[in-house]
Amino acid sequence: MRNDESLIFIYFCLIRKIDMRIYLIGYMGSGKTSVGKRLASRLEYSFLDLDRVIEEDQQQTVTEIFAQKGEDNFRSLERFALHQTFDMENVVVSTGGGTPIFFDNMDMMNAKGLCVYLQANPSVLLSRLIPNQQSRPLIASLGKEELYEFIKEQLTKRAPFYEQAELHIEARDLTPAILYNQVINWMKNQSRY
Fold first, then answer.
1. Which residues on neighbouring strands pair with residue 117, listed in sequence order?
2. For 52, left (φ over 0), alpha (ψ -120 to 50), or beta?
3. Rg (CA), the chain
4. What pTM does this model have?
5. In this structure, are strands 21-25 and 91-94 parallel, antiparallel, or unpaired?
6. Which of 19-28, 72-81, 99-108 has the least mean pLDDT?
């Protein structure tokens, strides 16, 4: 084998022995679910979307939970679902946009796995959110300009939490391959210690 191939082979073997949880965080529309599924597939990990876990458990959509039980109740359900992931291995978890800012969720995710912040500016998020805005309870009733201002305000409030993630990746042109390579590079750097 060539030197590069040897390194890749050793690296592959090393990765297979790392049992971990990868938490994808960021604002809604940043690509946590769509890119997360493909990352999990490439790593041969399981994939969990916290919102879908809650919906299955409650037999209600997130929109229905917000409308009938309120945000506080939803955030408690979200925390419970998140804590269930701490016993899992080899899993990519797509969190809700607000997950990191409630309770001790951010500290716990950092302690229990790798947090990856998918960063996107308000314009990118706006263009991604408008097509399915009605399915997102926090923004369903906002006009385009209101939505843009809401995103800007929310990003400002949430940035101190999001920025605690170990790995930050620009989400504008994010592909599964880019995310995979970033995570693999992080793993490689961790293996040096």
1. 25, 168
2. alpha
3. 17
4. 0.85
5. parallel
6. 19-28
CA–CA distance from 149 to each of 15, 160, 169 (Å)? 42, 18, 23
Q: Which residue has the higher pLDDT, 186 or 124?
A: 124
CA dihedral 36, 38, 41, 45 (to 10 degrees): -10
- Tell me how far apart the terminal alpha carbons of the chain are, to the nearest angstrom: 26
**Which sign does the torsion angle of CA 118, 121, 127, 133 carry?**
positive
Residues 141-164 pLDDT 10s: 999 999 999 999 999 999 999 999
Both tokens of 84, joined, read: 């269930």
In degrees, to the nearest 5, what angle opens at C-alpha 32 toward C-alphas 109 and 142?
A: 110
All domains of the chain in start order, with CATH? 3-188 (3.40.50.300)
- Residue 109 to residues 63, 113, 145, Cα–Cα distance (Å): 25, 6, 33
